[in-house]
Amino acid sequence: MSFRTRVTLLVALAVAVSVTLVALVAWLAARNELVDQIDASLASRVEGDPGGWPGHQPHGGPIFGADETAQIIDSDGDVVRPRATPLLPVDDADIALAAGADPGTARTRTVEIDGEPYRVLTAALSDGFAVQIATPLSDTYAFLRRLGVTLVVIAVVGVLGACVLGFAVAWRSITPVVGLRTAAEHVAVTQDLSATIDIDRNDEIGRLASAFNAMLGALDESRTQQRQLVEDASHELRTPLTALRMNIDMLARGKALNDADQAEILVDVRDELEELTVLVGELVDLATDPTTAEEQKEDVRLDVISARAARRAARRTGIAIVVDAVPTTVFGSSASLERAVANLVDNACKFSPVGGQVVLTVGDGRVAVADEGEGIPAADLPHIFDRFFRSEQARSVPGSGLGLSIVRQIVEGHDGCVFAENAPSGGAVVGFDLPDVEQGAVDAPMDSASSGDQ
User: Fold this and answer.
1) Are 380 and 279 within one domain?
2) 70 CB contacts (<8 Å, ≥6 apart)?
3) Is residue 177 part of a domain?
4) Res 24 pLDDT > 80
């Protein structure tokens, strides 16, 4: 059963139940109102002083009109002043009224006489008598039957109208869902992620269509980035692989090489392999989406992990690294953020002159790394975080052009942003800002503020 059919049936069922309940309540209310009116009409005939009824005694004169169905009974249940037809039934409750009840006490009930329904009122009189008055219910029951048929017709028409309305509502509501299905089938068949759904509504279905369009856009962008990454990676991998092939070919002609040349080639091969290993590792890191990586996020002391990264870089490079940090806590992955800081420090160390120093500043969610190099050309500043981008002066130092790209990916995965600028006093300042910062005194001890010791 289709969703459109289910919606139509649910709407029809809801309307059917509602109309049926309303019709039933209306019919019962009409019946009770008519019966109350009949009872009030019967009671009006015996209003006043019951003892004042002239001729209610057994041998009195006539007290009923010719068009009335009435009779008087005594305390034994005998009819003392009957009408000719029909004779009204007498039960124990009627005898009790005649025998012992106060004058004016009455009861009503519905009886059937000769196959015809009657409404009968029995009222107590004085001196041990009671009067019974009846009126036929044939016309009332006929009216109720006509009213019931009318209400049934109205209910049927209402349910049929509800089916039509439910189908129209279902068709209107299901149209965006059909668009979703069509777009999904189109993407599955053609792999075309540019397909979108036209949205002209702001309800839940419209928001679902908007979310679907956003998902397709994100997938399209991700696939474009992956394709670009593969193309860039293939270009960058070609250089070390070509150099390795040339060196291996030269080693294959070993008889034409002396020992010094072979040793030099082996050193080149080892360097190319190390560069290739670093490049492959960085490509793997860059291809991992930090928003989907299964890394536990927690409160991280940004100042502590920065000092730790600076201390390792100082031991490895011999560059003096000064850490100027205040206790700063952010929410994120400790390992990823430490990798980002380490990449910034390593990048600054590459461009620091001999005898120079690197200054790492941490505070208020910001990490800034300043070097004493030549700075970054203005034309290159917008591109230094791009994949495989290397400026003219950077091509003379080791690297793949992926370190700062990894920094940007990690920082954006933590809802932060990166920045790069030239310091007024010379050199470059590269870093990032993270949100949701808690700054102040923290019980955990901070690593040494200076990592310049070798």
Assistant:
1) no
2) 45, 64, 83, 88, 131, 132, 133, 134
3) no
4) yes
Residue at a domain's end among 287, 315, 330:
287
Which residue in the block uniquely carries the two structure tokens 């039957």? 145
Whether residue 236 is found in the same domain as residue 352: no
- Say if CB 95 and CB 133 are below 8 A apart: no
Taking only the tens place, the pLDDT of each residue in 204-219 is: 777 877 887 888 888 8
Give me the CATH number covering residue 264: 1.10.287.130
Closest CA to 342 of 375, 306, 372, 366: 306
| Closest to 71 measured CA to CA, from 81, 84, 59, 60 | 81
If asked whether residues 222 and 338 sit together in one domain, one would say no
- Residues 280 and 216 occupy one common structural domain: yes
CA distance 30 to 37: 11
Q: Are 275 and 302 within one domain? A: no
- 430: which strand partners? 369, 420
Percent of the chain whose predicted confidence (pLDDT) is above 90: 14
**Distance of alpha carbon 234 from alpha carbon 400, whole angstroms:** 12
The whole-angstrom separation of Cα 272 and Cα 237 is 11
Nearest Cα residue to 163 out of 12, 14, 318, 355 = 12
Domain that holds residue 271: 208-287
Helices 204-252 & 259-287 angle (0-180, nearest 10): 170
The answer, yes or no, to whether residue 323 has pLDDT greater than 80, is: yes
- Mean of the per-residue pLDDT values of the chain: 77
Predicted TM-score (pTM) of the model is 0.46
Q: Where is the domain boundary, 240, 260, 287?
A: 287
- 352 shares a domain with 267: no
Q: Provide mean pLDDT across the span 306-311.
A: 90
Give the tokens for residue 57.
């005694």
Tell me, what's the pLDDT at 209? 77
Residue 398 domain flag: yes
